[in-house]
Design brief:
With about 525 residues, the chain is of the alpha/beta class. About 25% of the residues lie in helices and about 25% in strands. It is built from eleven helices and 27 strands. It has helices at about 1-5, 75-80, 130-140, 155-165, 170-175, 205-215, 240-250, 275-290, 290-305, 335-350, 380-390; strands at about 25-30, 45, 65-70, 70, 85-90, 115, 120-125, 140-145, 190, 225-235, 255-260, 310-320, 355-360, 370-375, 375-380, 395-400, 400-405, 410, 425-430, 430-435, 445-450, 455-465, 470-475, 495, 500, 510-515, 515-524. The strands form seven sheets. It has an eight-stranded parallel beta barrel, surrounded by six helices. The protein has a six-stranded antiparallel β-sheet with strand order 16-20-21-27-23-24, with helices on one face. A five-stranded mixed β-sheet has the order 17-1-22-26-25, with no helix packed on it. Helix 10 (about 335-350) links the parallel strand 12 (about 310-320) and strand 13. Helix 7 packs parallel to helix 9. The chain is globular and about 70 Å long. The two termini are about 30 Å apart. The model is unreliable at about 1-20 (pLDDT under 50). Bound molecules: alpha-L-arabinofuranose.
Length: about 525
Amino acid sequence: MKKILLSAIALTVAMAAGAKSDPVKVTVNADQPGATINKNIYGQFSEHLGTCIYGGLWVGPESKIPNIKGYRTDVFNALKDLEVPVMRWPGGCYADEYHWQDGIGPKENRPVMVNNNWGGIVEDNSFGTHEFLNLCEMLGCEPYISLNVGSGSVQEAAQWIEYMNAENGPQAKIREKNGRKEPWHVKYIGIGNEAWGCGGNMRPEYYSDIFRRYQTYCRDFNGTSLYKIASGATDYDYEWTEVLMDRIGSMANAVSLHYYTVSGWVGAKKPALGFDEDDYYWCLGKCLGIEPVIQKHLAIMSKADPENTIPLLVDEWGTWWEPEPGTQLYQQNTMRDALVASLSLDVFHKYCDRIQMTNIAQVANVLQSMILTKDDKMVLTPTYWLYYMYKPHKDATFIPTSLENVAVKLTPNERYAANPDETATRPLPLFSSTASKDKAGKLHVSMSNVKLDQEQEVTVSLNGMKAKKVSGKILTSDKATDYNTFENPDKIRLADFDGAKIDKKTGAITLTIPAASIVTLEIE
Ligand code: AHR
C-alpha cells in the first residue's frame, strides 16, 4: 500500500467550477518511480453480443466487405495499430451459455443455437475457438478465455483447455484435424463470469467452492502455466470479495471486478448523445467513483493476502448508455466517453502495483467501443483515439504526479439514498493527470481538462529530470457532445499538439488545454 500513498494526488480545492482559475500546477515526481504499468491495463473485451463479433470483427471469408481470412480488414488494421495487448472472449454473460465444441470443425457442421442473453438471435457458431485465437495471434495479443461455469461442466472446461494448449493427446488430435497443429498456449483463463448474476446467480460461498473445483481441472500443458481468474464482485459488493478471498486463497492468480459508468437500469438509461451540463458532470463523477471502489476491494484483498500477491483485474468497465433503438447495446461515443477512458486509466495507473489487467467493454459496436461499423463502413471513436494517445504508458514505469489549483465540482451520488455510508455528492476534480517513463527514458504526461466549457492553463514542473525537448498530442473537439459518424468519421481524431513551451529559466512547461480535452506530452 505504500506506493499507493506515495502516488496519491494532492488536490487543492481552488474554487468552484465556472470562475477563471489560476493555472493548474502539475508536479511530476520523476525521482519517485513506481511500479510498471502492465500493458494489459489496455485490454479489450469481445463478446457474442449485438454486432461486436458478427459485423464488427468478423464478416466471414465469403463477404463482399474486404476481409483477411474473414476478419474485417479495416477493423483488423485499426486494432493492429492500437497494439491491443489482451482480448477477452466469448463473454460476458454469453460465456456461461457457450459450448465451445459447437464452434469448431467445418462450418456447415456447427450447430446453430440461440443467444438467449442478447436478444434471442440465432448464433451459427461460425466464429469459434480457431477464429478467435487465430485473430489474437495475428494481432499479437494474448487471448483471455472465459469458461462456461454457469451452464457448462468441469469436463467441458478441462477439454477446452486441453484443446487449446496440449501438444499431444485426444484433444490435440481433434485440433489438428480441424486445421491447427500447434497449440495456442492460452494463458488467461476466467473461471466463469459474473457468477453472482448471469453466470449462475450463485452466492459467494457456493461460487468459491465451484471455483476450487473448476480450477483443479484447469491443467497446465506443455509449459503454459495458466493464470486463473476468479469471477469477482460487481461495483460495491464488498462481501463477495471478502468471502472469495477467504475461501479460494492462493488458488486464484487474480480476482476480477466489474464497474460500469452506468446511467440507470434497463429502459431508464440516459442517451449517449445530446447530454447537458448536469449529465456530463454526473457521468464523470460516477466514472471516478471507481477509485474508492477499487480502494475498498484492495483493502479487503490485503486482509486475506497481506503480501498483495493476488492482483485485481477490472475485466469489464466503461460507459453504458441507452442502446440505439433496435440494437443490442450499440451506443455512440463522444468526447465525454474519451474523458471517462482517460480518467479511468489515470486511476488504473495509480494502482498499477495491484491492477494488472483491465478490459474495456467492448472492442466493437457494444457499449464504450473502440470501433463502430455499419455494413462496409467503420469509424474510430474518441475512445479509440484516447487509447491510441495513451499507448506510450504501456509497460512504462509509473511516475507519481501531484496537482495544485484544481477546481472540484460536487456531483450527485445516486447511491446515497440507499446507502447511509455514502455521501450525497461525489467530488469531481476538474483536472486529471498521469505520467510514466518509458524504457528509452522518455517521460509521458497525460492531462485531462474536465471543465466542460473553459480552457485550462497548466504549468508542469519536473522533479528529478530536466526538460530539454517537449512535443505532444491532443484529443479535442469544439463540443464535448461531438462524435464521429459514418458520414464524417474524422471529426475527432488525434492531432499533434505544439502548444507546450519550456521556460528556459525555470525548466517548467506551460500549456493551455481546451475544454473537455486531453493532452499527452512527451518530454525528453
Ligand atoms: O458487457 C456487457 C455485459 O455486462 C456482459 O455480458 C456482462 O458480463 C455484464 O453484465
